[in-house]
Amino acid sequence: IRINFSTIVKDTGFINGYIAVLHDVTEQERIDSERREFVANVSHELRTPLTSMRSYIEALQEGAWQDERLAPRFLSVTRDETDRMIRLVEDLLQLSRMDNEAEEIEKDIVDFNIFLNRIIDRFEMTHKEDVKFVRNIPKSAIFTEISFDKMGQVLDNVISNAIKYSSSNNKRVEFHVKQNILYNRMTVRIKDNGLGIPANKVDRIFERFYRVDKARARKMGGTGLGLAISKEIIEAHDGRIWANSVEGEGTTIFINLPCETIEEDDWDA
Ligand code: ADP
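A: This is the predicted complex of the input protein with adenosine-5'-diphosphate.
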């Protein structure tokens, strides 16, 4: 807290009183320091691929371009680093759009269970061999108002993470959907049997650029922004997202969202 004192002086020159103004600077300071940290993180995240690209380009200039074996490898590294930077910049733009956007995102009413099943189908196609998907999803409809694109992005991110942060054999991702009719809410659970996250770090995975294992996450090509973006999207749906994890056993991501109760009467109408 910052305190400003002013004296009140009468025409006669006598001091009549004091005014103390209390400013709460802690909130402002927190925002400033978060912003500084964010800029430092962005700079660092961009510098890493740039320095790497620079050294490969230098090597190519110094003669590697003539080496039929080396040149394609060096070029593919620079290509990968460029892709990483593009992903990073796209994620940053999305975050900044969400930070600024006062307007609501466009939503449609869908049966969440159909929506989720389609997404799992897609993953199942590309991970036939290495991942087992288990669905505990009710047959009956649960209607929710969501943005297809954005909610799809959240689920893509969470499911990709579940696969990414698991050891290579016996990967298993379980889905659980439950409606709470009393509160007009629903909860989705996405559980993996992967590496897990140390207890004191679980809550931090939704922070921008936070990664439990920097080197591993980088190798997997992530930007460290996926869950931060997911959290913003879920909050824009009046929802909540959180995680539970046991190191060495696996992680569960929970997403709680509002849902619609369709009255019997609505069907008759
Ligand atoms: P990225 O995957 O690009 O690093 P995310 O924001 O998606 O960024 O995730 C942040 C971090 O949270 C990851 O780097 C990883 O350390 C941790 N994490 C996320 N999901 C899981 C999971 N299912 N199991 C273990 N760790 C996870």
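The longest helix spans residues 25-61. Residues 157, 161-162, 165, 192, 194-195, 197, 205, 210-213, 217, 222-228, 251 surround adenosine-5'-diphosphate (CB under 6 Å).
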